[in-house]
Write a structure and sequence with these properties.
single chain; alpha/beta; seven-stranded mixed β-sheet; binds 3-acetylpyridine adenine dinucleotide
Length: 540
């Protein structure tokens, strides 16, 4: 556990920060580094007791990175950092990633401007002074010229409002709020887990090893690909360290550091395709999705790969009825693909059972277990692997107030409106990193944070050099931006299923594909906007 440093808070001489950043995850940490380099007085606030954001919170056993894995799941801006850090496995686990982020915090001396264990409880733009006024959980008032949201894309844990949840007398955990101070012991216990997204899938085989009984409450079956975590090959380590600038350049231009397959599944013979699929299945990670170029654009190709996975599921599970329940029938990859280790095999164990809560929904939670419409399951431990109010939840739960006291949640009540996903009209001097209508989770996260952080530093510099105090997105730019993001999504298969990308996992949330799916195009676009003198922004 890290101790908060209370000294050395960096404000300008009048006690006003140039920039307040919310979130000390990988995004906020880069923004701090960059903006401090530019000479700004910056402070980062985070509710956690340590840096690392999602990797600080998600300590459940089995948490590991999924795509793209090491050595590419890292910052790209410093070749020295790349050279000095040793990744050991292809899919580093949560402790490994957290120690990397702690290393970065020390290496770039970030901690002196990070205030931990502090939630921002209110954020309001003050018209007269042109400042953001923040209230913290410590009772402080903080004033800053600029506000940057780096609150994370999967940080606002979603707990369904099950009737009776509070009455459950056993242990209850949400995967995103796993206990920091003790290990959870499943030995000999009757454990229930609701949710089979990435978090549930990573946890299930581990719980199965020690629990007396594990009941998996599944609403939607998933496509789970083998992670095949293994020691990272020396050649890959060397390749990365020796060619970093070129790899980085390719990642910026294409969204991936290594070349992507161009061949089309629909053009391959069945024999060729099967050989490619089998090899990709053996290689693990996201190889199966990426082994052909048309899986996520052509429904026919998508069905070919989907059927291959279904075949693998049938082969992995001994009981055909159980296998049938685990077969997904929607578009492969439209819900985020999952990397698992021994997930399907766990259902062959005598102590693991599956309950289909789409067929027989959960009615309530009682003091001793879960009641569905056709049965009761007595439990000692209940795990909610029920996901997040993704992409917007971190910011809408803060619900900042812009001009005239208007609340962001009201502005977004029928769907997100933004310009470049970076700014919202009516919220001057507020920038959002990895927010909705940006590539966020569909582009390398660290690299995306760096490019957005550099862009924000650029617009602040532009304002300062021009003698302006206020920067604001023009309302007229927003509808076109929204249409552009939606049009890209419509051309892909990602928007053709229910998923947290669409907001459909949260009751009442407007359905809207929230991710800009052309990451490289997005970054070219925001660069052009900067080059044009920030077209679409008003400086005053
Ligand atoms: O959450 P999810 P997650 N009754 O939203 C079910 C990243 N991540 O925490 O599919 C019953 O994917 C819900 O059912 P359905 C990764 O990007 C990365 O697992 O909506 N069930 C689903 O099964 C991932 O995509 C890693 O029908 C209910 C599950 O809960 C993202 O985080 C590890 C329900 C939620 O799945 C989120 O993953 C973990 C209800 N009322 C996560 N409500 C890495 O390895 C929800 N569900 C990097």
């Amino acid at each position: 556990r890290l101790k908060r440093k209370k000294d050395n808070v960096n404000t300008s001489s009048n006690g006003i920060l140039d920039v307040a950043i919310i979130g000390a995850g990988l995004t906020g940490m880069y923004a701090l580094h960059k903006l401090r380099e530019e000479g700004h007085a910056v402070r980062v606030f985070d509710r956690a007791d340590g840096v690392g954001g999602t990797w600080w919170w998600n300590r459940y056993p089995g948490a590991r990175v999924d795509s793209p894995g090491a050595p590419f799941y890292c910052y790209t801006f410093s070749e020295d950092l790349v050279a000095e850090w040793e990744w050991l496995e292809t899919q580093p686990d949560q402790p490994a990633i957290l120690s990397y982020l702690n290393h970065v915090a020390d290496r770039f001396d970030l901690r002196r401007d990070i205030q931990l264990a502090t939630s921002i409880t209110d954020a309001a733009y003050e018209e007269d002074s042109g400042l953001w006024v923040l209230a913290t959980s410590k009772g402080e008032e903080v004033r800053a010229r600029y506000l940057i949201s780096a609150v994370g894309t999967l940080s606002d844990a979603y707990k369904p409002a099950f009737d009776g949840l509070a009455s459950f007398r056993g242990e209850v955990y949400h995967t995103g709020h796993w206990p920091q101070d003790h290990d959870v012991d499943f030995t000999g216990k009757r454990v229930g887990i609701i949710g089979t997204g990435s978090s549930g899938v990573q946890l299930i085989p581990i719980i199965a090893e020690s629990a007396a009984a594990l009941t998996v409450f599944q609403r939607t079956p998933q496509y789970v690909l083998p992670a095949r975590n293994r020691p990272l090959a020396e050649e890959l380590k060397t390749l990365a360290k020796e060619n970093w600038p070129e790899l980085r350049e390719r990642a910026v231009a294409t969204g991936r550091p290594l070349p992507k397959a161009q061949e089309l599944a629909v053009e391959a013979s069945q024999e060729e395709r099967n050989a490619v699929y089998e090899q990709a299945w053996l290689t693990g990670g996201m190889s199966l999705r990426d082994c052909y170029g048309d899986h996520m654009s052509d429904p026919e190709a998508n069905e070919l790969v989907a059927e291959f996975v279904r075949k693998k599921i049938r082969e992995a599970i001994t009981d055909p009825d159980v296998a049938e329940q685990l077969l997904p029938y929607y578009i492969f990859g439209a819900k985020r693909l999952i990397l698992g280790t021994g997930y399907y095999e766990a259902f062959n164990r005598d102590n693991v059972s599956i309950v289909d809560v789409k067929k027989a929904p959960i009615v309530c939670i009682t003091d001793s277990g879960v009641e569905t419409s056709d049965g009761f399951y007595e439990l000692d431990v209940l795990i909610l692997a029920t996901g997040y109010d993704a992409i917007t939840g971190g910011l809408t739960s803060l619900n900042p107030r812009g001009r005239d006291g208007v609340r962001l949640r009201d502005v977004w009540s029928k769907g997100v409106q933004s310009y470049l996903g970076l700014a919202v009209s009516g919220f001057p001097n507020m920038f959002i990193m990895h927010g909705p209508q940006t590539p966020a989770v569909k582009y390398p996260m660290h690299l995306g944070a760096e490019l957005q952080g550099d862009w924000i530093a650029g617009i602040i510099r532009h304002a300062k050099n021009g003698g302006f105090d206020t920067v604001e997105a023009q309302a007229a730019m927003q509808p076109a931006w929204g249409k552009e993001v939606a049009a890209i999504a419509d051309r892909s298969l990602y928007s053709k299923a229910e998923s947290w990308y669409m907001g459909s996992n949260i009751p009442g949330k407007p359905r809207q594909f929230m991710v800009h799916l052309d990451g490289p195009g997005y970054h070219r676009r925001i660069h052009e906007v900067a080059e044009s003198g920030y077209e679409g922004f008003e400086f005053s």
